[in-house]
Fold these 2 entries.
Entry 1:
Amino acid sequence: MADQIPDQIPSMAALEPKSKVQDYNYPPKPLAKLDADIRVTYTGVCATDHHMIDNDWGFSRYPLVPGHEVVGRVIGIGPDVKGLEVGDIVGLGALAQACGECEYCIEGIDNLCLKRKFTYFENTIDETGEHVHHGGFSAYLRTDSRYLFKIPEGYEEKYVGPLMCGGLTVAAPLYEFAGQSWDLKGKRVGIVGIGGLGHMAIQFAEKMGAETYAVSRGTSKRKFCKALGVSGFIDSSSSADMSAIAGKLHYLLFCVSGGSIDINHYVGLMRPYGVLHFVGVPDKVENFNLMPLIFSRLTLSSSPIGASNQMRAMLEFAAKNDIKPIIEEFTHTTANEALQKVRDGSIRFRAVLKNDLI
Ligand SMILES: [Zn+2]
Ligand SMILES: [Zn+2]
């Protein structure tokens, strides 16, 4: 019998702020013309998930079904869906919808659309009305097919989730820095923070041909980074390491979330016209002073996720170059264990849940 979306979708949801996720069933929204139904196979756990469960940013709503690093199989499609068929393996990231009509969407920066809808923060809108959209801690999802991305053949499903948010987040700014290409030959790129985002950023920068440097406090991650293929490892607490690379980097990608950061500590590493780019969100920025940035003609920039066209390009590039996140596997029903390890920072390096709800 063909798989079908059930009348009640089993999921794991937080029912109130700071609670554990628990069994929760909800009915699917009515099928819109452009919707597709998927059976979730895996979903990644992003730091955003625990911040949202805890209502750290003040806009969570409950019951909250987290998960925006989803991979699944298409089991049904609405009448107007194009380019997807039942049986396709697809990914869903942090963006569930954008308007498709505004200046930004037409320019191909739909991730910045003012009407964008994040996967489990907001309501999606279609001809059947406005509906709460849940995340990948569900067994099934019914969602706008235009934000489902086909996964290149042969790329293992369990690795897809972390690419859908974390992978895109680090790849998109590198791709933009390379002039919307994957060619960073001749460029020296530093990656600050070797965790869930940073270990993927190193792989992307390396495969793009950049001379890649890992920047980390202490030397505990030196061996690991060398194994990932970096050209150099910079212990940011060593003045000898820092001065050895002074004035050399074209680009420095900050992948650290939480904690406090002293941006000026890194300014000396940059070449003139260098770019310091933030994808991680520190809790606090300390000792910030514009003067050294001005005197070296540096740019400070930041970005959230990436656009749909960058998602397609990223998935293809990752599959072709065998870029894979390092994952720890859990299941939907053991999601609380995964969330705990993401919370306390002991996860190496991305948690992935296998759907065992059905
Ligand atoms: Zn995320
Ligand atoms: Zn738009």
Entry 2:
Amino acid sequence: MKTLLCVLAALLLITGCESQTRNDTPNNTADSADQDNTAGSANQDNTAGSADQDNAEAPVPEPEETGLSIHVKKEQIHEGSLLLIDREHAVPPGGEGEPAVNLYEHKELRKGFGLLDNTVRLSPDLTEKFAKMVVDAAKVGIDHFLISSGYRDEAEQNKLHKEMGDDRAMPAGHSEHNLGLSLDIGSSLEEMSEAPEGKWLAENAWKYGFIQRYPEDKTAITGIMYEPWHFRYVGLPHSAVMKEQDLTLEQYLAELKEHSISTTSGGRAYEIYYYPISADGNIQVPVTGSCEIDGNNEDGVIVTVDTGPEGGAK
Ligand SMILES: [Zn+2]
């Protein structure tokens, strides 16, 4: 939802996420643009005459394109589904994304789960993602889910921080609940650490793009106590990698700074890269495909490229 499709960014630069496949139709602006590879020249000099000439005979072989040129704006560091929110990294202005709604008042959004009380708010988009997950859990008899907390604005977080103290609650702007991509999930049967709902989520949430954000054995890394109820949406394929490699979001973002990650998800192959934002904002990615850009909320972006069907030739 908040992930920017870099196919759009790439179109502005005219190289395009799918730049390996060339389309030789007349008026194909991509042809002239690819040669110049600048946004400025792309819209100039694209006369029909020259296009016709270019396409009149068998095309002259051109140097093979080996990657993707994208342009990233500085503010994209603070946009997307992978933003790190902790004591050092606050929710950026406007980072809450799609506005949250009161789920008690929006009965149509409550599919397969209850609410702890009538104040729970969450964006319709995240609610839908959560509902998809719990509807699948119900198919195997796990069906006592409830949401105990969703989106919290800064005033609510401030109140909570004062009531619970600095050890138990984050200051305003530093809770994932202020970002709008997290929720606390409960079970009406028993505590989440024991409940079938908690166990099912711990094993399966990654398939739906969610991660258990504060695991029991990672408190030294997250700085947050074990919270079997707190889930964060990061999206696929990221959640799959984090689950498979047993990484928290902190560890995942740090690992991407060390090396790129190749993975598969839903029958597709992905290459995942971290890039610091340079002064000119230009990034050269070594593979092609449709891609997404997510900021890390610190100093750069994660570029996720869908390179095609799993096992297919690139
Ligand atoms: Zn929480």
